[in-house]
Amino acid sequence: MIRRPYIEVAMQQPNPDNRISRRSIVRFGAAGMFLAVLNRTAHGEAWERLEAVRKLLGDRKPASEGLTLELPLVSEDGSSVPLTVRADGPMTAAEHVQSIHLFATRNPNPEIAEFRFTPLCGRAQVATRVRLSESQTVVAVARTSRDRLYAAAREIRITTSGCLVRADSQTDSNEMAVRVRVPERFRPGEAGEILTLINHPMETGLREDRAGKLVPQRIIRAFSSELAGERVFEATLYRAIAANPYLRFYVAPKAGGDLVLRWTEDTGRIATYRVRLAVA
Amino acid sequence: MTPAALSLWAGFAIGLVFGAVGQRTGFCLTRAMHGLWITGDSNKLRAFALALAVAILCSQALDAAGLIDLRRSIYLASGFSWLSVPLGGIVFGYGMIMANGCGARALVLLGQGNLRAFVVLLCLGIAAYASLTGIIAPLRTWLAALTSTDFSPVPPTLPAVALGQTPPAGLRLSLAVALSAALAAYALASPTFRASARDLAGGLIIGALVPAGWLATGVLGADDFEPVPLASLTFIAPIGETIQYLMLATGMPLRFGVTAVAGTFLGALIAALASGSARLESFSSPQRMLRSMAGGVLMGVGGALALGCSIGQGLSGLSTLAIGSLLAAAGIFTGASLALRGPLRLPQI
Fold first, then answer.
1. What is the pLDDT of residues B162-221, one digit of tens each?
2. Quick one: closest CA in B to A160, which residue?
3. Which of A223, B98, B112, B192 has its CA 20 to 30 A from that of B72?
């Protein structure tokens, strides 16, 4: 007996004349809808169930429009992933974005950072670099001064690093040295970008040194900025911020003045920087 | 323009020159190896030697002058695998002969209408990323972790390891001058090579593109806050990255390697069209197609293991004087030789 190839047999037996029957459509349709519903509910609630997020939201439903979280789709190196978060909306004394919280749902600890804004920021936008231990969803939650809540989530895939050099293994020997860049000139009331970077390993407390001992946690915990004595932008950082913490934020000064920046390590060490902002 | 954007445009320009010069002069390590073992024509090998001489001299000069710090390149990363790198080189070299040209050459050939090169590039790019971040990656990282060696805190170059410390700039430069002189002397020793304007130009210009790459990423791309990783010409990961970029551009940043790959293809295309040498070509038999596909896969896997290809390690890597690059280049030479001569040589098809 000649054995027919499996694929011929399989294709012939159930549906010899290739008609699509009504029954099969109903079956597939039902399965499809079930999967779609399951997927949406599973997806929608997965990060909302995270305890850190629940503490912020309570049982309120955050708005999904108005908060943008930018992350690459895929990153080879999880130790330094660029991230930008932006909340659209007014930044006036009457109503402004007060805080944005970032979470990494699958990191050893989900908190990445907390950013606090004032109307002097002009724009509620921050860029930084974060550490992600594996492929996961990153979540941002924003709260305005009128207690409105917004949330945004992005999925990112972290693959094995292609090369042996990790971005955070090249910290300079100049710890606590800072670099700051400000616009040459501001127009009164217009937001300008401030770039800041401080040399620091951001030791997670999970790394072993050459002898095999755990290097204790040591990170920059807090960042603050003041313009002529008034608070502008502040941040609480956790160990999920990448080494050499990079913070890019906005200031909209009404008049010229001294911008004072301060970084505080969790041991208490402080670094400061003062620069004059020129308003034309 | 931001430093990152500047470095991208510079990469594109460097690629254009590489593609055009490669197409017009026929600069090719595969042909050089054929010349060494089969035809006896040493011109292409001397052209490669001349390119290496220029690359080493200019790259080391830039480093000694403090304009770039080659220790930030992947070739001088503190650890590498003493097994994967030469093994990858051998696999790459063998695949290069099977595919009748390396990744860079395939880009140039594609630019002149050679559709065989398209198949090679696809196989190379997919195999490379399968090894870097895909299904073969766990095997690669396991092997690398098992056989990794670390010369820290000394950078892994021969002079540094021999001395036990980073050699002073003057010494590094003298060594570079000596090496370049030796390579150039070998290249220029042959009267037929000296008479061949194409091979002279190919060697000089392509050699100069390596320090151009360091400048593009290390100087033009220098930024206190968002620095571009220091890199020069290489064609394994970038070819795979280009394929991935075509599919994921909305969620993936454009990088130097991808613009260099695009430039190389376009440069070769423009040169071929302008000189009337563009011709559509395909495989003459299924066996040849299969051999090219296998060659592409071997180049992708080998190049990923060796951290570079004939250009990536053979020129850019060696210009840093890294020990790993020496191992990789020796591997590539060995693999190519095995495919051309001896018991493992490829049968005629």
1. 888 888 889 999 999 999 999 999 999 999 999 999 999 999 999 999 999 999 999 999
2. B133
3. A223
The token pair at B132 is: 């870097």
Chain B: nearest CA to A139, how far in angstroms?
17
Question: Which pLDDT does position A168 carry in this prediction?
Answer: 45
**B133 vs A82, A160, A169: nearest CB:** A160
Inter-chain contacts counted by CB atoms under 8 A, chains A and B = 53
Contact B77 A162 (CB under 8 A): no
Residue A167's closest CA among A219, A213, A132, A193?
A132
- Token pair 């999925």 is at which residue? A155
Count each helix (H run) and each strand (E run) in chain B, helices first.
Answer: 16, 2
- Report d(CA B316, CA B233) in Å as an integer: 6
Classify B161 as helix, strand or coil: helix
DSSP B107-158: HHHHHTTBHHHHHHHHHHHHHHHHHHTSTTHHHHHHHHHHTEEE-TTS-SBH
Rg for chain B, CA atoms, rounded = 19
Which of A161, A173, A153 has the alpha carbon at shortest distance from A131? A161
Is the dihedral angle over the CA atoms B214, B215, B216, B217 positive or is it negative?
positive
Which amino acid, one-letter code, is at A207? R
Q: B101: phi > 0 → left, psi -120 to 50 → alpha, else beta; which? A: left
Flag residues of chain B having pLDDT under 50: none
CA dihedral defined by B29, B33, B38, B43, rounded to 10 degrees?
60
The string of pLDDT tens digits covering residues A2-40 is 555 544 444 444 555 555 566 666 676 666 566 555 544
The whole-angstrom separation of Cα B205 and Cα B197 is 12
A38, A44, A49, A50: CA torsion to nearest 10: 130
Tens of pLDDT, residue by residue over B299-334, are: 999 999 999 999 999 999 999 999 999 999 999 999
- Determine contact, residues B272/B25, Cβ cutoff 8 Å: no
Q: What is the ipTM of this complex?
A: 0.82
Interface touch A163/B77, C-beta < 8 Å: yes
Rounded CA gap, B72 and A82, in Å?
Answer: 20
Pairing of strands A149-158, A74-75: parallel
Distance of alpha carbon B55 from alpha carbon B207, whole angstroms? 5
* Ramachandran area for residue B290 (φ above 0: left; ψ -120 to 50: alpha; else beta): alpha
Whole-number Å distance between alpha carbons of A89 and A75: 30
Number of H helices, E strands in chain A: 3, 15
